[in-house]
Amino acid sequence: MATKKIEAPTPASPESKSQSVNGSKAMPAHTGAKSGQPPVSKNPHGIPDWRLEQLPFHIESEWGDGEYRYKIVGDTSAPVPPLRPSKYLGKEQTIELFRYMIVNRRMEAALESMYKQSLVIGDLYQSLGQEACSVAAAYALDKDDWLGPMIRNQGSMIVKGYQPRATMMQYMGKGDSPTKGRDSGSHYGDPKTLNVVAPISHLGDSIGVLAGVALGARLQGKHVACLGYIGDGGQSTGPTYEGFNFAAVQHLGVVLVVEHNSWAYSTPVELQFACKDLADRAIGYGVPGVIVDGTDANQVYDAAHEAVQRAHRGEGASIIEAKFMRMKSHAMHDPAQYVPAKVKEYWKRRDPIARMEQYLKEAGWMTEAQIAEMHAEVERFINEERAVAEAAPMPGPEDAGTDVYFDNAVDIPVKYGEVRVKNANKNRKLSESSAPGHYK
Amino acid sequence: MATVTYLEAIRQAIWEEMERDSRVFVMGEDVGVYGGAFKVTEGFIHKFGKERVVDTPISEMAIASAAYGASLTGMRPVGEFQFMDFISSAHSQIVQILAKSNWRWGAPAPLVLRGPSGGGVSGGPFHSQNPEMFYVHTPGLKVIAPATARDAKGLMKSAIRDNNPVLFFEHKFLYRRVKEELPLEDYTVEIGKARVHREGRHLSVITYASMVYVAQEAADILQKEGIELEILDLRTLLPLDRDAIRATVEKTNRTIVLHEDTKTGGIAGEIAAIINEEAFDSLDAPIVRITAMDAPVPFSPPLEKAFLPKVEDVVREARHLLKY
User: Fold this and answer.
1) Which among B74, B96, B142 is the nearest to A414, CB-wise?
2) Is ipTM over 0.90?
3) Taking CB atoms and an 8 Å limit, are B104 and A198 in contact across chains?
């Protein structure tokens, strides 16, 4: 497993000016020909859209043959555009990021095989087609930054430093899993070293937590980026709004990656929200927003990188909407027959790993043979991880009810340094409250 | 020694802890320049700065989750809910994230969520509730409900110093009605320990928060009849002090459990079960529950009076139990 990434290079043309979008600050736009970038379009509300194609169809429900079903309105035959060249990623980083995507995919393929052998306890949640979004967004984080994954973001957790065996052992309920068999799947984290907030099943609840992490770090004089994901379904919840609004108003460095993966379990986006682009919500929050193609790792990375840098400068929160499709079902029990076949074919042609392979070959950064060797090397690595995970013991009954409370004898240190405040009257004494209050 | 109200005791506790430990900070609605709806944090922002006295949007969810997030970085936040009724708006964060945090992923959450609960002030159905039992039923939390100024201060300090999420239910009826002399020096009161508020031989009233004073009035009346009530103030509802419950039942052999919360699913049922497990053989009479009626808290004074447990209820049931 390659160690953590090299620092990102400074952009060729640093863009400091930001544009006003309905009162909010927009992300710096690509400058087209100046940096060899294709032009950036804007959606009807002025949100920059870095994609090189627009989705040429949508889903509607239809009554026919005595049944309701989903039908496609529009054309699904459009050719696949190339990746947008990254403004920040060089060859080495791109190859490392590509490898993480392969690790993500092959880990889940192994998990599917383990599921079919009844080694996985309960259900399995996969991210096929989402690897670019998971991996490239997390790749923009520094060591001190925090990650708030969701159930399918197990790839992002590998970027942050976990080994595939962690997720495998979680799914098998092993005693050596990060939660000692107490929780499943990607529901684990590490507040001490890797800075990953363990997700819960309730959607959006981690967003306010990430805001709090940024608040705590800022009190200690450190601007960290806290990158979290939410889905097109999860963003409907109240906690999403309340958590992110707090981050926005406090100018906390929360980077919210809205994974528009087109299906919330079985519900299409057309039944989830009335606006066209979820990035429009950035305007309401008063933060910059941007739309990217979630199958294009370069777009995802560049947008995340800019949002993370903004967080590091103490300028506050950002929203990135990444559009793509969940290529597997909600979980293994679900055959996902509600997805029209042509929609699946459209997105299958936009496979993020296949697109990245094409990009690497066209850039002359990897040959077909090198790519094949990387797949083979990762396959060997995953097999080793799987062997370790399978050999790990199950938990003992004594682990069910321990650790409910943390020991009060242990001092919990601050993570980033001494707490500092700018203006405070240290000599002020506490005098009895004399002001009028409720029910005096 | 200085005479201090229950409210001032809480102010002092948080102020002194913020002076002692820079990791402690407060956040909540209107807690900054305004000093909070009940003035618990009045003056705090000038002393400690706006970074450590954080005014939040109207979002209990954000208060709970951001306090928790900050605790992950080693801070020790004290979040204020303007009224504990609004804790329901943060329920998911508290029971799903905070309470399970250490058990699930080894992330201790040293934080306090506090605010005024309870009735008797015509606050109506959304400003008078006793929502503590939702949280007593949640492993991983600690739940505190003090009755005296001394305990309020000492327990608040312990709560802030505790490495676990603590919910601190203050009683708004007591805020400015009870006062006592408090030591000037630093002191704490241990979480999880009940306190004998009044010694007695004939009958135990196990209670907490403002009902301690209802029991006290009843005890004064019954004393004239030669009946001695022992009043056990639980102080902490999670974890419950099983030893103290057993000890008082073994001493008096008769028990009333009195609380302002509603009856069904109230803590009286849990205490009756503990007595059953710990001191069944000591009982000379059935355990009696005196609680608010199973209804929302009404607004109008005659209705609220009918709703809440009363001194005469305790006197009547005590006389009855002693004849049993």
Assistant:
1) B74
2) yes
3) yes
